[in-house]
């Protein structure tokens, strides 16, 4: 068995907590860093279903991308979803560690993984002068910019992205026949980084959770955009964490969540 504090030290090297956005809540959210760990369950979200699977697996630790707790809790009862999940974790002596924007921002983290999945080369971060909004406000700058090995039509790139990320479907705004080579991206809800993508000179921006106004603005800017799904652009953390534990803590047993995307398509 390995103490949770040692695992946390290694995770801090991968995704330094200093990188998190000011509004975020990362790190050990439930548990005791002195706990001895033998089995780890990794997932995108700490849902009731994932907790049940973690319990069945005999996990001592569950690591997720999204934080279990974001808003202050006034009670820990069975009357709320988050509160009930916390009670289940405590009752089964399972600690919960969440990574989120620390991992999004980290070198080799979520957005670098996504860029690699999309087949990009010459991958870089948004520069400070690119991470500026329409009114000059500073953006978080979460995301990456890279280039394709060769130009593709937007339609060809969409097909490639669907296959790489396992998307049943995705939505886009742009001209399917337009040739693209420079790609900007932001895993998860990246609508707020739309102007960073535009300022980077990208031909297309890949992210998720895009709204009506994002499409309107992108069309005004002449920027192709693709909504590839929040789950699909971030569930890649499970594969990463499985590999992380295989190399850093080979004596620990690890299981990845088998959860499917929440939304289905017809």
Structure description:
- 41% of the residues are buried.
- The strands form 3 sheets. The chain has a 6-stranded mixed sheet with strand order 7-8-10-11-12-9. A 5-stranded mixed sheet has the order 2-6-5-4-13, with helices on both faces. The chain has a two-stranded antiparallel sheet with strand order 1-3.
- The mean pLDDT is 96.
- It has 10 helices and 13 strands.
- It has 266 residues and is of the alpha/beta class.
Write the layout of secondary structure elements.
Blueprint lengths: L1 E2 H11 L12 E4 L5 E2 L1 E5 L4 H10 L3 E4 L16 H11 L3 E4 L2 H5 L4 H8 L3 E5 L18 E10 H12 L5 E3 L5 E11 L4 H6 L4 E5 L3 H10 L2 E4 L2 H5 L2 H12 L4 E4 L10
- Average pLDDT across residues? 96
Instruction: Using the coordinates above, name the CATH class of the largest domain.
Output: Alpha Beta
Strand content: 15-25%
Q: What's the CATH topology name of the largest domain? A: Udp-n-acetylmuramoylalanyl-d-glutamate--2,6- Diaminopimelate Ligase, Chain: A, domain 1
So how many helices?
A: 10
Estimate percent helicity: 25-40%
CATH architecture descriptor text of the largest domain: 3-Layer(aba) Sandwich
Stretches where pLDDT is under 50 for at least 5 consecutive residues are: none
How many runs of DSSP E, i.e. beta strands? 13
**Biggest sheet, in brief?**
6 strands, mixed
Radius of gyration equals: 19 Å
Distance between the termini: 46 Å
Structural class by secondary-structure content: alpha/beta
Note the run of SSEs as H and E. Answer: EHEEEHEHEHHEEHEEHEHEHHE
Strand order of the largest sheet: 7-8-10-11-12-9
User: CATH superfamily membership of the largest domain, which one?
Assistant: NIF3 (NGG1p interacting factor 3)-like
Global shape: elongated
Domain count: 2
């Amino acid at each position: 068995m390995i103490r949770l504090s040692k695992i946390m030290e290694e995770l801090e090297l991968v995704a330094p907590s200093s990188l998190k956005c000011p509004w975020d809540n990362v790190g050990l959210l439930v548990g005791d860093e002195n706990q001895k760990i033998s089995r780890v369950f990794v997932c995108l979200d700490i849902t009731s279903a994932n907790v049940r699977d973690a319990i069945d697996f005999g996990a001592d630790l569950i690591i997720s991308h999204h934080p279990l707790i974001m808003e202050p809790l006034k009670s820990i009862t069975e009357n709320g979803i988050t509160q009930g999940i916390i009670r289940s974790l405590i009752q089964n002596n399972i600690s919960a560690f969440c990574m989120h924007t620390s991992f999004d921002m980290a070198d080799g983290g979520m957005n670098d993984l996504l860029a690699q999945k999309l087949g990009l080369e010459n991958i870089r971060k948004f520069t400070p002068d690119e991470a500026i909004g329409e009114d000059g406000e500073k953006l978080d700058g979460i995301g990456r910019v890279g280039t394709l090995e060769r130009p593709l039509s937007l339609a060809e790139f969409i097909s490639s992205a669907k296959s790489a990320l396992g998307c049943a479907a995705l939505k886009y705004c742009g001209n399917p026949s337009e040739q693209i080579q420079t790609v900007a991206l932001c895993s998860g809800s990246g609508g707020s980084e739309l102007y960073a993508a535009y300022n980077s000179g990208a031909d297309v921006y890949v992210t998720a959770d895009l709204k009506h106004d994002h499409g309107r603005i992108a069309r005004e800017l002449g920027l192709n955009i693709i909504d590839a799904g929040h789950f699909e652009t971030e569930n890649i953390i499970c594969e990463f964490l499985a590999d992380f534990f295989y190399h850093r803590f080979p004596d620990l047993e690890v299981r990845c969540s088998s959860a499917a995307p929440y939304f289905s398509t017809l």
